[in-house]
Amino acid sequence: MTREARPPYDVVSIPMAVHRTNSRLFALPAPPAEVVRVAGTDYRLRRVFKHDFFAATCLYEAEGAGSRRIVVKLYRTQGLFGVPGRWLGRASRDHELGIYAALEGVVGVPRCLGAVGETGLAIEYIDAAPLDHYDKPPAGTFDHLRAILDAVHGRGVAYVDGNKRSNILVDSAGNVHLIDYQIAIRRREGWPAPPRWLAGKVVGYFQRKDIYHLYKHKRRLAPEELTGQEDALSRPRGGLHWLHRKLTKPYRALRRRYLRKRDQAGDLVSPTAELEDHYQPEKDAWKAARKD
User: Fold this and answer.
1) Stated pTM of the model
2) DSSP strands (E only) in the chain
3) Residue-range domains of the chain with CATH
4) I want to staple 131 with a disulfide (CB 3.0 to 4.6 A). Which of 4, 50, 168, 271 is the partner?
5) What is the rounded CA–CA span in Å between residue 118 and residue 50?
């Protein structure tokens, strides 16, 4: 769906809470609007799936027959150290809208319903559980995921965020869905030749990393289904992979240590904590108490 063709979306103006607990570390300074209006239908806030530095991902439900549900992702509006955050929120939202437009119609990619307010977008709700909630996913899960990634790559897009099992959903019928295109990247065919060539190389590299992450998950969660070729793809070698790990592992360790200390000090309470009443395995990496 092109941005010009989107139906109108709006946010119903409802006073937000003034409580600003540790808001600098979260995308929103307070809980999101109680009600959003999408294509003439009012949806009421039911749950916050995740709220981090960049965005709050929320479940909204229409009242009445059918109880239709949508996911609304609200990008950052909170400033940081005097720097306004809304520009980052708008740019992030517009980037993800562009990725969804490029992937429209791909089976396994949820439909984007358009913009919501200043920094948000509405997405089709998928009734499914994240892969990190499974000790053992249904047989064939990773074959289905490979088909989705092949289609995504065929549209010139690299997913990039495949390391997170929480972005891979499996429904009760065994269907697989790939969500959250916040950091996905795509080729730019309209660019001049030199930057277009470079962008294509970068996208190609991250597409290969998508496949690596796919088979890494398969090797760890469904090793009996892994072929020899897939096992080889799950164990990449090369200078770029080595450099990536050398740069990102120390950063990840420092970030987790910082978050864990802030949490243990009681200084890391999400403004939407009361709406996050569910299991979030991603937080276990830093939330669990450890001796440094």
Assistant:
1) 0.83
2) 9-11, 35-38, 41-51, 55-62, 69-75, 112-116, 120-124, 129-130, 157-158, 168-170, 176-178, 185-186
3) 22-125 (3.30.200.20), 129-245 (1.10.510.10)
4) 168
5) 19
